[in-house]
Fold this protein.
Amino acid sequence: MEGRTKNKSAGAPPAEGGRPTLKTIAFMTGLGITTVSRALKDAPDIGAETKERVRLVAKQIGYQPNRAGVRLRTGKTNVISLVLTLEEEIMGITSPMVIGITEILAGTPYHLVVTPYSSTKDPLGPIRYILDTGAADGVIISRMEPNDPRVTLLTERQLPFVTHGRTKMGIVHPYHDFDNERFAYEAVRKLVERGRRRLVLLEPPPHLSFHQHMRTGFERGLRDFGAESVSFHQVNIDHSLKTIRDAFEALMRSNEAPDGIVSGSGSGAIALIAGLEAAGKKAGVDADMVSKVPSDFLRWLRPEVITMYEDIRLAGRELAKAVIGHIEGRPPETLQSLGQPEFQSTIPGQQT
């Protein structure tokens, strides 16, 4: 039998610091360490039955390869680093994105490591750390700027990466983005169809790429459908919900009050509704709203709001596939995708 060894003692399986090792699997299967290692690597000279037995034991005991050892042998870490900011957690995109990424990585040798940072600090800090320490084989970054220094640095250092969002730098790189221009355009269409003409936009921060995309779609919609814009530039989706609420209450109490609202985030929409109601007005009566959302919660709680679903889980899957493709050397222009808006009805499971 392949690699069969005789167990001379019935003691506990060998382990290093309590962590299951190849020795542990060898002890439990009665196989040699070399055979176990080759079985886990799917070596062609190891029988299918032996491979299955080794993999089953490895799964049962929670075995994970020693990353330091893998790196010494291959020069790879088998790590993908997802660099996220606190703002993305506030907007509710972290969990579904991580789920989407891990769904793709589950069938690969790669592990996901989330690297958080504050947007108030140097955005290059996490990237420099990953580059200087060799902490990952690939990086996923988000909240892109039109001219983003992270893209320049990653390209210069030749570390595979993918961006959640697009740039305008003349550098062709992998990305997955959401079509915020189309979202805003179609949102204006929906509001005008309901007889609304004075529209306001709660937009992303002006330094981010998707601010330009959303603003372009909104203004094009205003022109095409004969509506006008009400200024609301003093706040954006990155401000606290209280700040957004207070600013919108003041606007709704003024002579410039809009009758149609486009919200660039689901959490921001909640603040806008609170401000509208604090001003003694009612959503769906005094003003209609269209909001981008990452889940069904707003639609369930406020069916009078027209919601557009942004599939963050899908974004995670697309980002994971793109960064793996970049690591494998595929051309970056073949690793670009654009998610489309899905307007939802107030009936679960239906779109409008």
Observations:
- The longest strand covers residues 79-85.
